[in-house]
């Protein structure tokens, strides 16, 4: 897929300085640019690369003026970084612009779907599934009975959506993720065995949610596990039954959230954080990576450690902890001096 400088400038509302017919078909860092590639210059510390780059087209801020001769065609915009991001988004949309139903695939009875559906080969749609318009479901995906999916969603290859799940508009689910699997519910018996507790709830995912690869979101025992609008989940996250995650909260990889915990909106949660069950985490909480959360947190708290406590106190304590070997040696020396003086 090729684009000319004039076409790109039209998309970005920019100005071409150089050859408007210059063509590109790939993207590159400015220091690695080769013929046929498009790059950008936003940070002044990389200015020297624009004089040596072999990239065919470079997006720059409108204030940039070259001090030496350059070979690359410039596209001047208000903000080079934002414009390049916009272009990446546009490119991704074009790349994902698939439609049609590939074979073999299985569509069960009473399935309805909107315009421009893409259903990849070896996909399965269960009974009574409802799918909005412009939805892309890549090969080897499973959509269970009575699932509802909104408009403009993308499900990459190998996604599994269990029955009764409700997914809003403009959601992205990456490969290997499982939504709606049974919650971890077992009742201990007198003989030491465990009886499985039926999990008859569902999962609700609101609009503008993105779920990383190999993340699992369990259905509720009763009621719903809820992922609110704008939540972003990284890869390899476990969300247990009846958890609720508030709007625009971001959670990094390998975090585990035990059952019935409620996390507020606009929280920032680092990787490998572990949450105990039945907790309430306030809005705007920030949790550093590898923290263990065993109690409720008030809105706006910043914590670290396992068990986690105030971030500032943790940083001070870590300085002491790191110096413990030296402190122990100093204490031993003082004891020896004291014994020798007797």
Automatic annotation (TrEMBL):
- This protein's name: UDP-3-O-acylglucosamine N-acyltransferase
User: What does UniProt give as the signal peptide span?
Assistant: none
What is its quaternary makeup?
A: Homotrimer.
Reaction catalyzed: a UDP-3-O-[(3R)-3-hydroxyacyl]-alpha-D-glucosamine + a (3R)-hydroxyacyl-[ACP] = a UDP-2-N,3-O-bis[(3R)-3-hydroxyacyl]-alpha-D-glucosamine + holo-[ACP] + H(+)
Domain of life where this protein originates: Bacteria
Instruction: Provide the family line.
Output: Belongs to the transferase hexapeptide repeat family. LpxD subfamily.
**Protein role:** Catalyzes the N-acylation of UDP-3-O-acylglucosamine using 3-hydroxyacyl-ACP as the acyl donor. Is involved in the biosynthesis of lipid A, a phosphorylated glycolipid that anchors the lipopolysaccharide to the outer membrane of the cell.
Alphabetized GO MF terms: N-acyltransferase activity; UDP-3-O-[(3R)-3-hydroxyacyl]-glucosamine N-acyltransferase activity
| Gene name linked to the record | lpxD
Keyword match Acyltransferase: yes
Recorded source organism is Flavobacterium tibetense
Its pathway? Bacterial outer membrane biogenesis; LPS lipid A biosynthesis
Give the EC number(s) listed in the UniProt record: 2.3.1.191
In terms of SUPFAM superfamilies, this protein maps to:
Trimeric LpxA-like enzymes
Q: Which Gene3D superfamilies match?
A: Hexapeptide repeat proteins, MurE/MurF, N-terminal domain
One annotated GO biological process: lipid A biosynthetic process
| CDD domains reported in the protein's UniProt record | LbH_LpxD
Q: What keywords sit in the KW lines?
A: Acyltransferase, Lipid A biosynthesis, Lipid biosynthesis, Lipid metabolism, Repeat, Transferase
- Give the matching NCBIfam families: lipid_A_lpxD, PRK00892.1
Q: Which GO terms describe its cellular component?
A: membrane
Domain UDP-3-O-[3-hydroxymyristoyl] glucosamine N-acyltransferase non-repeat region residue range list: 22-89
Top enzyme category? transferase
Active site: residue positions: 241
